[in-house]
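To whoever is covering the structure queue this week,

Two jobs came back overnight. Logging them here so there's a record in the thread.

Job A:
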Amino acid sequence: MLTNPAIRRYNRRVIVLSLVYVALLFATIYLFRRGALHGPIAYVAALLPALPLIGIFLVLGRYIVEETDEYLRMLMIRQSLVASGFMLSVMTAWGFLEGFGLVPHIAAYYAAVLWFAGLWVGWGYNIATMRRGA
């Protein structure tokens, strides 16, 4: 599977975007903690770490288009659907708990964190269904 060209391109793109994300996040945190960002530039800087994450979402879609193996494509689509359902379910439940004052507010970017965690849940689901032959 790892010799598949579409998977190699996907992995390379995700690794590059992940490194860019980490660099931008640490740089932005550093600048905000130092009080170096104000006004419109602060808004631009605060959005910078989101760009590589958005890029990863696009890369996943591109992988699905580029993948020529129908079975591998189905596995990634199912994994993404599980991730989306997981994230939407957790965020919806949390939103109701938050709305009734039972839990604290969390930043909206945790939706992406939950989606990426949901990819692992989807991966596990794929493994479980492959083992039982479904």
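Job B:
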Amino acid sequence: MQDKRIKETTIPRFVNEGTPTLAGIIALFATIILVLFVVKAASTSNTSLATEATLELSWTNSDGTQSSGVVVVELYDDDAPIHVENFGILAENGDYDGTVFHRIISNFMMQGGDFTNGDGSGGYAGKFFGYCDGQEADSASDCTMSSYTVPDEADNGRNHAPYALSMAKTSAAHTGGSQFFIVDGDGNGAPHLDGVHTVFGEVTSGFEHIDAITALCDTPPKQPKTCPNDKTPQDVVLESVTTNMEDDSWWKFW
């Protein structure tokens, strides 16, 4: 009768006389990788959000000289998680890079984020958040990507204080997409927008750059408006936006 027992040589030895074999070393390495993967998967949330964004800006001063600066923004990931996620996605995709602040009103705010048209008529959310042009929808297939909007989180208790970062939208609910604005540092902010527009961050560094840009549209007494149609004579450019959103790739264990 044929011997059907498993021979010793069928299963490679991991240790030979107290010394790990090549098979043993490979098995140990594979085990370590597996353990690290399990630990990473258990400790990492799929909804990890950014808590900070860095905006690089460039503009032309009233005297024709060129300036640039970096503005750092704290993001309210707890109070406006949907807006922060949306902002992070658009930043990661590079959608904001090279866009302009198309609307600047002295003592009020500077608005940008229209990455499709550049004039305030375009832009859309970074992914489907359950709304198409402000209307609740069941599926992303209910509308085209250009109609994606985000639900309001305006009742989060955050106010439009000076240097606040807020979502631009129409007068209708849930119509924010990609456009945002930063409240001018002068005065008392924009309290009339509280509870209507969603504040999802605030400037923590680079205040002087916000001041310099909004001052471009200051109009001297009895003089024609410096910024006709609320736009600077030369573009104020948002060169890039980066965030500290973690890369949760499974193969990164540190």
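Note for Job B: Residues 41-46, 248-254 have pLDDT under 50 and may be disordered.

Please reply-all if you pick these up so we don't duplicate work.
Q.
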